[in-house]
């Protein structure tokens, strides 16, 4: 479209030059009127094309519905504040907002609760001339200074070290992902080591068997693994340890093992009760023999009568 407009402008300029040289090469009145009318019509066509293009662009932009950014309540949480600022910047881009003061005023409309109270105080300070918040960078700096917690990366490292895979492995992956995003300077090798070191033994063995080399793959495989109950995982680990002592290469995984162990345990208890009952009967018979022998005491196979 721009090329077509440029061509029309060049044609109009040519017509103008031809009219200007009419003093050298006189033209008839009819020809002059014809050229003048043609020039007017071409200029009108250019204006119509420009207006039409602008209207079409406006209509196209109006069809795109820009989602509103999430509100910020003033919670001292690094992830929540970072997400709020990021969404605001994407919102500014979507609505083509470039004025710095308008950005600040727009962002304050999405503050609630404690954050609103903070902004009211800062606004009063600005009216008194105590501080100035005129640009988006000024706003980012001030709101982070108020609500961004200190030592975020340090605390995240400590929590990652304490994190253990106790319940669902999916919950473990989710918590680990949240912590690692708060530690920007930790290498992928360190993250992978911590992830593998904190999972339960059966999960770590499965990850190593599949030969994972990066954190993204380890997380994806871990989430696909079946969740075991805590008691079942301890049984599996004991089986794996006993098999490793025997030098085997593969640990048999019998899903009916708990039922077999229970049946074996019941059989053993029944056998113990039977033996105990037999022993009691023998003792009872022996006492009866002693009573029926007589009133004396047998010593060395002889009976002495008092």
Automatic annotation (TrEMBL):
InterPro entries in the cross-refs: Ty3_capsid
Domain of life of the source: Eukaryota
Q: Where is the Ty3 transposon capsid-like protein domain?
A: 65-249
Q: Where is this region: Disordered?
A: 239-281
Pfam short name (any one): Ty3_capsid
Return the Basic and acidic residues bias intervals. Answer: 250-274
Q: What is this protein called?
A: Ty3 transposon capsid-like protein domain-containing protein
| Biological source species | Vitis vinifera
């Amino acid at each position: 479209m721009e090329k077509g407009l440029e061509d029309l402008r060049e044609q109009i300029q040519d017509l103008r030059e031809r009219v200007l040289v009419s003093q050298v090469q006189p033209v008839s009145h009819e020809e002059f009127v014809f050229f003048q009318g043609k020039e007017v019509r071409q200029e009108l066509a250019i204006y119509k094309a420009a207006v039409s293009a602008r209207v079409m662009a406006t209509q196209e932009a109006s069809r795109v519905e820009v989602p509103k950014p999430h509100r910020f309540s003033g919670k001292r949480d690094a992830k929540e504040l970072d997400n709020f600022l990021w969404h605001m910047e994407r919102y500014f881009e979507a609505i083509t907002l470039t004025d710095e003061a308008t950005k600040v005023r727009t962002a304050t409309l999405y503050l609630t609760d404690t954050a609103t109270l903070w902004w009211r105080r800062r606004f009063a300070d600005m009216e008194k001339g105590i501080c100035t918040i005129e640009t988006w960078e000024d706003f980012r700096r001030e709101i982070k200074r108020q609500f961004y917690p200190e030592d975020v990366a340090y605390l995240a490292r400590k929590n990652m070290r304490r994190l253990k895979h106790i319940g669902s492995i999916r919950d473990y992956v989710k918590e680990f992902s949240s912590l690692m995003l708060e530690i920007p300077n930790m290498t992928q090798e360190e993250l992978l080591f911590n992830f593998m070191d904190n999972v339960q033994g059966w999960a770590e063995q499965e990850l190593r068997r599949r030969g994972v080399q990066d954190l993204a793959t380890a997380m994806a495989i871990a989430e696909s693994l079946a969740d075991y109950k805590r008691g079942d995982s301890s049984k599996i680990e004991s089986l794996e340890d006993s098999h490793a002592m025997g030098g085997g290469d593969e640990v048999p995984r019998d899903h009916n093992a708990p039922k077999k162990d229970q049946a074996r345990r019941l059989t053993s208890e029944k056998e113990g009760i039977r033996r105990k009952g037999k022993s009691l009967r023998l003792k009872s018979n022996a006492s009866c023999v002693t009573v029926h022998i007589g009133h004396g005491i047998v010593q060395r196979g002889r009976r002495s009568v008092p």
